[in-house]
Amino acid sequence: MEIIVHQLPNTEKLFLVNLLFARTPSSDPFYRENRKNYYTLFSEKMNIKYNTITNNQDRLDALFDNGRKGWHQTPLEKQNKYYFEMYNKYKEISYEELLETVEEIKEIMTSTFVDKTFYSIKTKSPASVERILNKESDIEIEGINVFKDRLKVGQIIFVVLGGDKAKSFVTWETGLAGIGVIAQEPYDVGYEGSNFKIRIDMKIVLDSVMTREDLVPYANAYNIIGIGPNTKWEPNQAMSQIAENKTITLVRAILDHYPNLDNDLTRIFGEDFIMLVKAETDYLIPQSLTFGQKPIKSDTNVEKEEVHFEAVFDPYIEGIVNGLNMEKSVIETLRNYVNIGKHIIMTGPPGTGKTTIAEKVCEQAIEKRYISGYISTTATSDWSTFDTIGGYMPDRNGRLEFQEGIILRAIRENKWLIIDEINRAEIDKAFGQMFTVLSGKSVDLAFYDNTSGKSVSIVMHQGLNSYYNEAEAVYYIGQNWRIIGTMNTYDKNSLFTLSFAFMRRFAFINIPIPNSIHIQALIDSSPLEDKQKAFIGTLIKASPRPIGPAIINELIRYLTVSPAGFAEALSGSVVPQFEGVPANQIRDFYQSVSHLLSAEGRERFADYLIEFFDVKRSFFEKLPLRAEDEEQLAEDAEEQEV
After folding, report:
1. Is 269 in contact with 158 (CB distance < 8 Å)?
2. Domain count, the chain
3. Gyration radius from the chain CA atoms
4. What is the DSSP string of 309-343?
5. Residue 610 burial by CB count (10 A; 0-12/13-18/19+): exposed, middle or buried?
6. What is the DSSP letter of 514?
7. Fewer CB within 10 Å: N-end or C-end of the chain?
8. Which of 110, 135, 167 is the last residue of a domain?
9. Which H or E run contains 390?
10. How many C-beta neighbours within 10 Å does residue 117 have?
11. Rounded Cα gap, residues 114 and 269, in angstroms
């Protein structure tokens, strides 16, 4: 069948993408390697929630032999009439033709905008404001000090009029005045500190400025710096960056207020972008309620989508280890323990990426519909069962009511719980009745719920998801719920120890320092110069403790912005990992790396070590100079003479 892709509405394009992946078996490499990328692209480009896209595939999965059950309980025609109509339209299309069509759709979506970044610019110069309101060209805007290297001719700019209305010369209304493009890239750089100027051409001037109040109904317009309603502090700067999804909402607001600008906006942004602008947009609808009435939720008249969870955790392991320089076998072991019902504690030296791995594993659990989400927290020595399980707190009338802790919240929301540095908590005091729960048994808590009039309890059930039954005051733990803890092995003797009873309830996964091949590949792939790469290589070899990839990445990022900051990089990122290391090993480390530092750098680094490890200056001053040190000192002396 002939399909003219560029004439299809976005909803039909998205259906075809869903259809392709519904017809592709889970075992097919194409499915594993491309599904998330395609859906993420459509989510960003069409301003549609990622979960909505995956839910639509679940509707179609039940129709094909793909290794997935999908939403098989209800016929497609009763779930979604539009998808049922589209299925009947395209059910005879061959897989090869469908694949070719989806590739064309992807190409269209990725080429909609080469540069996804948009900017706003604010001016309070009376001369500039007058020219802006007159829709002139070649308008000079000054006082800018950010994004110098990103501003190019033709870049779209949202133009905002600023100024203090209390001042007599501010005769204009402040707010979003229109849209222009950059006519001249940054010039007069450094004319006043780090400031520079640009010139713009105005393309659209609104009949009246749009204020923050005008954008209140648009959910995604909040916290657009200088333009949208504020829910947090924003910097006072002449130029700000606007994310593409917020730009879509902002243009939608302009179009809602000024429908006559449709053609002008299309000429500026293009037809594909305006198609996204005209797609579904979330609005905040004001409601008038008397006391006791509950607000009407936006989905009141929408059929509630039942969420189905998978019984087996089958993460895309390559996606987890990508960029982490680690072996896949570690994640395979973690996956296997999750699938036999164990909670997880990841151990290893600092900087091996334990927390990052935990987050990536949780993201895969969400992606694979094994769990609804995850909550991340850090254990402290002050933790008690009040923090983890909950306890009584007075309400506004002074009446005591039960308030759930972080663990019960995770159960109620059906989310995995990441507990960073779990051994910083005194486990017996912090977990209490959770010992019983983690062993797979239900437990009654010593708390009373005012709403239901019943005692709060935690019950294990055979379903996959976890939830809270308000009428019964019961937290139901499903088969898929997990705690993932992390623990630095260097802390295990200095912090609280984990009891054997607690340890039995977890599987311990060691996250080792990557081998030298992975570490060297990480350094070689960085944008650093050879001298900086050699510096990192030397300190890794000289370090009294293994240096993890997270710390190496931190060093790379620091040396990228401060190429000569060797002493500061050592002090800020490396030395804090040496707490508890014997003083003689610290001195050996200093001697091994000091020849890479300038004379001033050696002095600063020695001062830092003296203060950090509380040793005397003579501890470092008595070190004999090595040949490398003498050569470096000679080079420093020559530089000073010059």
Report:
1. no
2. 4
3. 30
4. --SS----HHHHHTTT---HHHHHHHHHHHHTT-E
5. middle
6. P
7. C
8. 110
9. strand 390-394
10. 14
11. 12
CA distance 21 to 27: 12
CA 484/CA 315 separation, integer angstroms? 15
SS3 615: coil
Please determine, for residue 495, whether its predicted confidence score (pLDDT) is greater than 50: no
> Is 430 part of any domain?
yes
Whole-model pTM above 0.70?
no
- 3-state DSSP call for residue 205? strand
Can you name the residues that pair with 402 across neighbouring β-strands?
392
- What does each C-alpha distance from 407 to 385, 419, 438, 463 come to in angstroms? 10, 10, 11, 19
Q: Which of 29-33, 160-164, 243-247, 281-285 has the lowest mean pLDDT?
A: 281-285
What is the token pair recorded at 371?
């769990």
> Cβ-count burial of 386 within 10 angstroms (0-12 exposed, 13-18 middle, 19+ buried)?
middle
The first and second tokens of residue 453, run together, are 């009039």
Same domain, 87 and 137: no
Which tokens belong to 204? 């659209």
Place of tokens 């009654």: 444
Rounded to the nearest 5 degrees, what angle is found at the Cα of 320, between the Cα atoms of 15 and 333? Answer: 120
At residue 7, the pLDDT reads 73
In a domain, 413, yes or no: yes
Q: Are residues 481 and 561 in the same domain?
A: no
pLDDT tens profile 252-276: 999 999 999 999 999 998 887 888 7
Q: Which of 277, 303, 331 is the last residue of a domain?
A: 277
Q: What is the DSSP string of 135-189?
A: T-SSEEEEEE-S-TTT--TT-EEEEEE---TTSTT--SPPEEEEEEEEEEEEEST
In a domain, 294, yes or no: no
Report the alpha-carbon angle 134-249-107, nearest 5: 105
* Digit-coded pLDDT (tens) for 66-116: 888 887 777 888 878 888 989 999 999 999 999 999 998 888 777 644 445
DSSP character at residue 115: -
Separation CA 17–CA 36 (nearest Å): 12
Quick check: is 408 in a domain?
yes
Domain at 264, CATH number: 3.10.590
Q: What is the DSSP string of 157-172?
A: EEEEE---TTSTT--S
Task: Residue 523: name the closest of 558, 552, 566 by CA.
Answer: 552
Q: Please tell me the distance from the alpha carbon of residue 616 to that of residue 621, in angstroms, as a whole number.
A: 9
Report d(CA 100, CA 104) in Å as an integer.
Answer: 6
State whether 30 and 44 are in the same domain: yes
- Which residue, 529, 393, 534, 521, is CA-closest to 450? 393
**Whole-Å CA distances, 567 to 77, 585, 600, 601:** 67, 18, 9, 5
CB 348 within 8 A of CB 488: yes
- Residue 198 belongs to what domain range? 118-277
Q: What is the mean pLDDT of residues 601-611?
A: 88
Q: Which backbone phi and psi does 447 adopt, to 5 degrees? A: -135, 150
The pairing of beta strand 415-420 with beta strand 443-449: unpaired
Task: List, for residues 531-585, the tens digit of each pLDDT value.
Answer: 999 999 999 999 988 888 888 888 998 999 888 899 999 999 888 888 778 888 9
Show the tokens assigned to 365: 């659990």
Work out the widest C-alpha separation in the chain, in whole angstroms: 85
CA torsion 132-137-140-143 (nearest 10°) is 50
Report d(CA 548, CA 90) in Å as an integer: 51
